[in-house]
Each structure stands twice: as C-alpha cells, then as structure tokens.
Specification:
Blueprint (H helix, E strand, L loop, with lengths): L3 E10 L4 E10 L2 E6 L7 E4 L4 E4 L1 E3 L7 H8 L3 E11 L2 H11 L4 E7 H10 L7 H7 L4 H4 L4 H16 L5 E4 L8 H14 L3 E4 L11 H15 L3 E3 L2 H5 L3 H13 L4 E5 L4 E5 L10 H5 L6 E3 L9 H10 L4 E5 L7 H11 L5 E2 L30 H16 L5 H16 L20 E4 L20 E6 L2 E5 L2 E2 L17
Parallel strand pairs: 1-4, 1-5, 6-7, 7-8, 8-9, 9-10, 10-11, 11-12, 12-16
Antiparallel strand pairs: 1-2, 2-3, 5-17, 13-15, 14-15, 17-18, 18-19, 19-20
Helix pairs in contact: 3-6, 6-7, 7-8, 8-10, 14-15
Length: 496
C-alpha cells in the first residue's frame, strides 16, 4: 500500500513524454507507480484540474537557508543548489546543513573564488556572502595572475572539496578577472579528470572588445575543447548583456561540434550581485556596458547610484551590499525582450534563478525562522518567482513552448546536466517508478509570480501542493512550518 497517492491530476513527465490525466503513488520517499486507478493509500491528494509534475531543480541558488527554501518552495522548487559560486570547505558546509535541517533538497559545488582567496591571501575564511564582499578589498586575488605555487594551492583546495562530495567546481571568473588562462586550464583539467562539471560566470560581459562577452565565451569554448571539461554557462542572459545574439551563435556552433557545454538562464532583464564586483569599478563601465551608473541599484533602500565617484565610495564602505543591475529594459524595449527570449528559450537550456539571500534593512542576510519573511527582507524577485514567472509568461500566456517542454527546462534538463557526475540526480526531474518523490502540484490557469522590484518578498501563487523526498511540504497552499524534508545532493565522498 502506498503512503501517498496524488489522484486525478494532469501528469506531466518530460522523461517519458507523458501528458495525461493519471495518478502518482508514493512510498518511502520514492515514486512507486504512475498510472490510473491507483488507490489504497494512507493519504490522498486530489489533484483534479491541477498539473502534477516533477519538482523544479534550481542549479543556481545562493540563498541556501530555511527562509530562502520556503520562498522557493512556493516557486515549485524541490531541489536548490549553489553551483555557480559553491562553498569551501565543503564537508563542514554539508554538515551544518544537516544539523540545522533544510526545507528543500540542497547541494553545492567547490568554490574556486575562495580557493583563490585562500591560496593567494592566506585567508582561511569559509565561503559566505559577507566574507566574499570583505575579501574583495584585497585586490591580489582579484587582479593578479597566480604563481605556480598559488595555482598548486588552488588546485589542492578544489581537489579536497571534490573529494568531500562537491557537485563540481564553481568558477566566478568575472569576480577575479586577473586569473590567467593557464590557471583556469588547470582547474578545468582537474574537473575533467574527476568527471565533474564546472559552473562558470564568464570572465567578461562587455559588449565591446577587448574583454567582451564574446571573448569570454570563446575562452570558455576553448577550455571545453582543450581539456574536455563539461563547461556549464551560468545566467546566459545576464552574462551576455545586450550581445546575446552574438553569444548564442558562438555557443550553439560549439555545441553542434560536440563540445560539452550546457547553459541556464533566468527570465528577468535585471541581474543582482554584490557591490564589490570588479566590473562595477571599471573606469570604462559606461562605454563598455552601454549603461549609466544609475543602472546599479542598492537592494535595501532602492537607491540608484548617480556617478562613478559615489559608487566607488560605497564599494569601499559596504562591499557586501547587494545591488540590482538593470541591463535589459524588457518592459519598454521590444529588441531587449527578443534578446531575453534567446537566452530563456535556448534549446536544451535550463531555467535557473540565481536566487540571492534575503537581506534585512541593516544589510545582514536573514536566516531566521519567521514566516512570512520580515517586512524589510529584500532580495531580487527571481529569489521568489523565477519558475512560476517562466511558466506563466513563456508557457501559459505567450505559448512560446508547450507545458511539457516548459517542465523539461525546469526539472529534467537540470537533472540531466548533473546526472552523469552526480548519481543522486539520476532519480530526480522525472515522474517514474523508482524516482525520488519530489513533486509539484500547481494550478496551470492561475500559477504566477507575485514578487516585483517594489515588493520583492511576496511568495508565488498557484503551487497547491509540494512534496519533497516523499513528505508533503505545502498542502492546499499552506506551508508546513515544522517540516525539514530536505536531503543532501552530494557526490560520493572519497573513501566514504
């Protein structure tokens, strides 16, 4: 007898191509059966008129906390991974998550930036947003080419993280633009030797040479070809800025030639990062990006910077401050909307949020247990509404792709990107017997994001039920505040 049966819903499983009314039975955290007439369960969810789909898998989520998990739960996410940045040390991070309990399944890569910080500055700080912003004050690891000894230290730290079960290597190349090609080639060779992906924020994002986005993608394509490493491109949209069309053509040609390159994008024209990011202090910022300093906006109070002098002063005083970067004007510019479509609808590309931590008005990340979140908690709307926004706008309203293909981009493609290197991911992103019981049940007619730049901490609507590791987390639209069903997603630990 199944422990839970979800009955009468529109079952959408991109792995099998199923899109039909049926039932899904769950037992001991796994999907036991998919079909019709399944009964005899201890608990039943009536999904009549609702979509039943594999829970969404976010490859790019920096929140990694209970409040961040809860907000993403209403976005249909069941597995939230920090792969672009990652963590270091790895073992202690996983241990802390298990000790405090997590709402969603979680995991991380090994953080190249912190490996660089440690090897080049002697800092032993564990990776965190606050530590990262503070480390940006020391320009040695940001601007300098690493010596042979420093490269050895970087590789040693990353190898240790991979041995501790990290999902791959997160490469924040844009935050250390001084890193040399020899170093990054060695990092990619390490990833290839361990059969794990790299998750890269490309080195440059300008629309003009030298150090353009096109140059950055050519480098990434070169790393894939020269080392054989699986190169995953993070936030294809924001990394390409207004040069998306050119960058799409380069990546598509490289993929057509068989190079191991994958991509992700989020459905917004505005990005987010820390104020200390090196690209904000570029003396040619305006010319290289085609944007004024007023395109950079502080999250906590909405202030837009007036000029370079004001931004540099704020960088020095508050480097960890979260900012928004308004790059594409998708509300008023039809060409910009077309550019965003190229990234979001890229064939075989995943949807990933780049969700940021929730920050209070004092600038500190909120990691408490209050729900709803405190009124002054801010982030980026993508931290609350990425996947529901994609389903609402691109699938339901504009009908650019089918619901089956939309679910594929939110669930199966992310699982397939990680499956070859991370065995735990082979049982996710699909509704099939033996798969993990990570399931989202939503109302396709009403599902929507509610977070806006003027009201960021509003959960999405339309997710009626969410099951994580076989345990109901959201039931009839109500979150179980005591539930901690999240399980670690981790590669096998060396010697473990």
């Amino acid at each position: 007898m199944a422990g839970l049966v979800i009955t009468g819903g529109r079952v959408v499983d991109p792995a099998s191509g199923m899109d039909a009314v049926g039932d899904v039975a769950v037992l001991d955290g796994k999907i036991a059966a998919v079909g019709t007439g399944l009964g005899g369960a201890e608990h039943t969810i009536d999904a009549t008129g609702l979509v039943v789909a594999p829970g969404f898998i976010d490859l790019h989520a920096h929140g990694q906390s209970i409040p961040a998990d809860r907000m993403q739960a209403f976005d249909g996410v069941t597995t939230t991974l920090d792969l672009e940045a990652g963590v270091l040390p790895v073992a202690s991070w996983y241990r802390r998550q298990a000790e405090k309990g997590r709402v969603l399944n979680y995991g991380a890569s090994a953080n190249w930036a912190f490996a660089r910080i440690g090897a080049m500055t002697g800092s032993n700080a564990e990776s965190s947003l606050e530590a990262f912003g503070g480390a940006m004050r020391d320009r040695r690891w940001v601007e300098n080419v690493a010596s042979e000894a420093e490269v050895a230290g970087i590789l040693d730290r990353l190898a240790g993280g991979l041995s501790d079960g990290a999902i791959g290597v997160g490469i924040l190349n844009a935050y250390a633009p001084g890193a040399g090609v020899q170093e990054l080639t060695a990092v990619c060779q390490l990833a290839a030797a361990r059969d794990v992906p790299t998750f890269t924020h490309v080195a440059f994002m300008s629309r003009i040479d030298p150090e353009s986005a096109a140059e950055a993608y050519i480098r990434l394509i070169g790393y894939a070809g020269a080392t054989g490493a699986h190169m995953h491109i993070c936030h294809f949209n924001s990394s390409s800025k207004t040069d998306i069309e050119r960058c799409v053509a380069l990546v598509a040609k490289a993929q057509a030639q068989g190079l191991p390159i994958t991509v992700e994008a989020y459905p917004y024209g505005t990005g987010s990062t820390v104020l200390a990011a090196a690209f904000f202090s570029d003396p040619e910022f305006e010319a290289r990006n085609g944007l004024g300093y007023d395109s950079v906006q502080r999250v906590t109070d909405g202030h837009r910077f007036r000029d370079r002098q004001e931004l540099l002063a704020a960088q020095a005083e508050e480097p960890s401050t979260l900012v928004l970067w308004h790059v594409l004007d998708i509300e008023n510019n039809a060409h910009h909307r077309d550019l965003l479509d190229m990234a979001v609808l890229y064939p075989g590309g995943a949807i990933a949020s780049d969700a940021m931590p929730w920050t209070l008005s004092d600038g500190k990340a909120y990691t408490g247990d209050a729900w709803p979140l405190p009124a002054d908690a801010t982030s980026h709307p993508r931290s609350a509404g990425c996947f529901t926004r994609f389903i609402r706008e691109w699938v339901r309203e504009r009908r650019t792709i089918s619901l089956l293909e939309g679910i594929r981009k939110c669930a199966l493609i992310p699982a397939e990107i990680l499956g070859p290197s991370t065995p735990a991911m082979r049982a996710k992103g699909r509704l099939q017997p033996g798969a993990d019981a990570d399931i989202v049940v939503f109302d396709f007619a009403t599902v929507t994001d509610r977070a806006e730049f003027s009201a960021m901490n509003r959960p999405s609507e339309g997710v009626r039920h969410l099951v994580v590791s076989g345990q109901p987390l959201i039931s009839d639209g109500v979150l179980d505040l005591a539930a901690r069903p999240g399980q670690p997603v981790r590669r096998p630990v060396a010697g473990g």
